[in-house]
Amino acid sequence: MRRPHRIPAGAVLLGLQIAVAAAIYQDFITGRKVFAFADIGSDTYGQFVPLAMHLSRYLATEGLPGWSFQVGLGASLAMFTDPFLLLSTAFGPEAVPGMRIWIHLLKIACGGAFFLRGLLAMGIHRDAAIAPALLYSFCGYILVDGQWDPHASEFVFYSLILWAVAHQRVRGGSSFVPLAVAAAAVSGVFMFAVGFFLVCLFAADLAIASDRAGAARRWLTNLWPLALLGLLLGAVVVLPNTLVLLDSPRVGGSHTLFRQLVRDALSFNDAPTILAQLAGLWHKDLLGVGDGYGAWMNYLEGPGFYAGVLTWLLIPQLWRGDRADRIRLAAGVAAVACYIASPLLRFAAFGFGLYYFRTSTLWVTMLLLVLAARALEVVSQRGVGLRLLAGTALAALTMLGALLAWYGPAVRMEHVFTLLVLLAIAVSLLVLRERRVLFGTRFAAALLALAAADAVSIGWPTANQGRAAVSGGRSGYADDTPAAIRHVKSLDPGFYRVEKTYLSVSLCDSLVQEYFGTKSYWFHGSGIVRFFIGMGLLPPEGGVTNYTNWLPGIGNRLALYSLLGVRYVIGPFPLAWPGFDPIATRGRMTIYRNAYAMPLGIVQHSQYPLDRFERLPLAARDAVILNAAIVDRPLGGLPVFDDQAMNAYPGDRMRRFFFDTARGHQRTGLSIERFSQQRITGRVEGGSGGILVFSIPDVPGWQVRIDGGDARTFRANLGMLAVAVAPGAHRVELAYRQPGRDIGAIVSALALIALVIVRRTGSGPSSFTRGERT
Fold it and tell me: Which residues, at least 6 apart from 207, have a Cβ–Cβ distance to it below 8 Å?
C-alpha cells in the first residue's frame, strides 16, 4: 500500500515561520515601522544602521573592509564580515533601514531550519522535531537579543554547528563541521564563544553517551580535528579580527577585567542574579519592557532562556523514557542549574573579558529544546505521565508565584496572564493526548498550533508593545547636518575633520552623514583610548571597561580641535570660540571654520617625556602637546621642550603657544596630494628635523614610507602614529593593511587544501558511531 504524501518537515516549518512572523512583525514588514528602536534597543538605530550604511559606501569605493577615518579618529573595519551584515549593504546605503526586517526574518528562517535539521540528524522523529524548531525560531533570545544584529547571527550559526556535529556523529563526512565552524567564526566579533560552544557539545555528548570512551575517542580523533580545520579555514578573517580585539582595552591591556572575572567565575551568583535568570525562564517581559526592565543589568543584556511553555511541561516526561533518557534529563537539569548558579560558563564564553550573559543564554535555550524534542518522542511512544505532568505544572506555578512575591510591582501581570493561559492550554493538550482524544497527526498539529500561538502571544508585545520603534516616515539622521556637510565639501574638497556640537542620533552620526569626526562608539584600539584618557577626555584607567567604547569627542578644548585637524564645526547655537569664524548657515545649523586647524601630520622639533606630561594640568597639556611630541622614550639628538617658557608670556600665552604654533604647523605639516581611507600620499617640510606625528591612532597595520624608504613607526602624543624625519622636505606615503590578513589567507588556503585531501581520502562514520542516537 502506498504511503500518503507528507509535506516535508522543512516546508511545514517555513510556512509556520512565515505565519508567525507576519503576525509579530506586520508593521515592520509593511513599512509602517523600521526594525530599529530608540529605546533600550537604540543600538539598532544608533549603531547597526550607521555601520551598515557606512559599509555599503565603503565597499563600493574602497573594497574590502579595512581602515576608516569615519570611525572617530580612525579604526579598523576588519571585524565586520558577518555575511548577513554584508547582505544588508547590497542595495545601497539608503536601503539599509528598510532591509533590516528582511535580514532579521531571513535569520529566523535559517536558524529555525538549521535547528530542525539538527534535531532530525539526532534521530528525532519528524513530528517531534517541528514544534521545538518553531519554538527555537521565536525563542526569547531571538525576540529580544536578536534586535542586536550580531546576536541574531549567532542564533543562526550556532544552530548550524549543532546540525553539523549531529550529522557528523551519525553519517560522518569531512566537510560539514569545518564549514559550519568557519562560518560561525568569521561572522561574529567574539570568536571565543565558538570554541566554548563546542566544549559544551563535547561535555553533553560525554554525559549522555552509553560508551563514554568511544565518544571521547570520536571527538579527539574526528570532531575536534575537523573543528580546528574549520577555524583554520576562517583564518583569513579570524586572525585579523583577533589582533584587532587584542588591541582593544575591553579585551586586552590595562582595562581588561580578565583577572577579576576569572576570580568571580569560581564563585556563585548572588540571589538577585539567580532570580533574574529564573524570571528569564518565563521571558524577560515578565519584568517589564525596555527601560522599565527591573532585573540584571538591562532588558537586552539580562538573562533569558524562554523556549515556550510547552517545553517546561515536556522535559520532565523524559523520566518515563529509557535509562538513556533519564540520564539526559539528569544531565540537562544539572547543566542548567550549574549555569544559573555559577557564572563560569558565561564568563568563559566571552574569554573572561565581559560580564554579559548574551550568547551563552542561547546555548541554554538550545539544550532545553533538544530535551523537549526527545521528551515529545517519549510522549508519543509511552503516553503522558499525568502525575508527572501535574507535578511539573505545580512546580511551574510555584516558581511563578515566588517571582511575583519577590519582584512585586515590577512584574507585568498581563504577561503573567498570557503565560497562565498558555500553560493551561498546554496541560489540556497533554491530558487529551493521554486520554487518546488527540492522537497521531491531530496531536502533532495541535502542538504546532500551540507553539505558533505561544510565539505570537509572547513575541508580539516584545516587538511592538511599549517599544519606541522608528517609524517609516521618520529618519533621525535627516536633520540639517547633511545639507551642512554637502556645503562644506563643495567649498573644501580636501581631507579634514568635521565635528558637531550636537548629536543627530548617536556617536555614530559620522558613519551615515559622511564626515570625519572625533566622536564614535567602537571597539577602539589602545592608542586612541590612551590619548583620550591622557588628555582628560575619558575617566582614568580603572576596572570599568564600557567607557572605552564611547569616545564623546573633545568638548570645548579648542587646542585639541586644531591638533586633531578639525577644520569645521557645525552647531545650532552661536559659538564664540577664538579662531572659529561662521561661514554659512544651513537650516538651523551654522558652519564655523577653524582658522587654526592643523594638517593630518605635523613635524615637532622638540620632545617631551610622557611621565612629566601626565603630571601637568589639562590646560598645560593642551599647550605642551601643540609644541612638542609626547614620547614614552626620549629620542637622541632632539631637544626637550622647555615648559617653563610658557610662564614667560602670562599675558600672551594663547597667542604664543596656540595661534603662532598652529600657523607654523599649517605651513610645514603634511600637504596631502592623494587621499583614500587606506592610502595617503603627500609632502612635509621637515625643517631642522624632528618627529612627524600623525593624528592617526597608532595601531598595527600602518606603514609609513619617507622618500620611498620604509620608516620605523612608533607611538607619540600618548597614542598616535609617529616617525622620525631628517631635515628638509620629504615625500610621505602612508598605507594601511590589516595585520594578520596575509598570514591568515595563507593559513586558510592551506586549510582548504587539507579539507579537499581529507574529503577525497574519505571520512565515513566509524563503526561505533553508525546509527547511534543522540
Answer: 327, 328, 331, 335
Convert 31-98 into a string of H (helix), E (strand) and C (coil). CCEEEEECCCCCHHHHHHHHHHHHHHHHHHHCCCCCEECCCCCCEECCCCCCHHHHHHCCCCHHHHHH
Q: Residue 762: CA atoms inside 13 Å, Cβ hemisphere, count?
A: 3
Of the candidates 142, 134, 174, which has an alpha carbon nearest to the alpha carbon of residue 158?
142
Per-residue pLDDT of 321-359, as tens digits, reads 999 999 999 999 999 999 999 999 888 888 777 788 988
Rounded to whole angstroms, the Cα distance separating 164 from 194 reads: 13
Distance, C-alpha 537 to centroid of its chain:
25
Helix 9-24 / helix 440-464 crossing angle, nearest 10 deg: 30
- Output b/e per residue, 191-200; b: 16+ Cβ within 10 A: bbbbbbbbeb
Rg from Cα positions in the chain: 29
Residue with cell string 597608532: 698
| Helices marked H in 614-689 | 618-627, 653-654, 660-668
Smallest CA-to-CA distance from 618 within 698, 529, 533 is with 533
Residue 560, C-alpha cell as written in the block: 585639541
Cell 532545553 found at: 368
CB 716 within 8 A of CB 704: no
Nearest to 565 by CA among 713, 415, 473, 694: 694
63 conformational bin, left if phi > 0, alpha if psi -120 to 50, beta if neither: left
**Model confidence over 462-497: pLDDT tens digits?**
999 988 899 866 567 878 999 999 999 999 999 999
Cell numbers linked to 334: 544539572
In sequence order, which residues have a C-beta less than 8 Å from that of residue 239 and are 6 or more positions away?
740, 741, 743, 744, 747
Q: What is the pLDDT of residues 523-567, one digit of tens each?
A: 888 899 999 999 999 887 654 456 778 889 999 999 999 999 999
8-state DSSP, 640: B
CA distance 485 to 655: 30
Lookup: cell for 573: 547655537
Q: Cα(89)–Cα(146) distance, rounded to whole angstroms?
A: 19
pTM for the whole structure: 0.93
Mean per-residue pLDDT for 72-89? Answer: 91
Q: What's the pLDDT score for residue 398? A: 95
Report strand pairing: 629-631 vs 607-609: parallel
Cα distances (angstroms) measured from residue 567 to each of 517, 582, 596, 600, 663:
10, 12, 8, 11, 13
Q: Which helix (H) or strand (E) holds 217?
A: helix 212-218
Question: How far, in Å, CA of 226 to CA of 203, rounded?
Answer: 17
What is the Cα 159 distance to its own chain's centre? 18
Contacts of 749 (CB under 8 A, 6+ apart): none
Map residue 584 onto helix, strand or coil: strand
Element (H, E) at 760: helix 741-761
Which residue, 365, 390, 380, is CA-closest to 313?
390
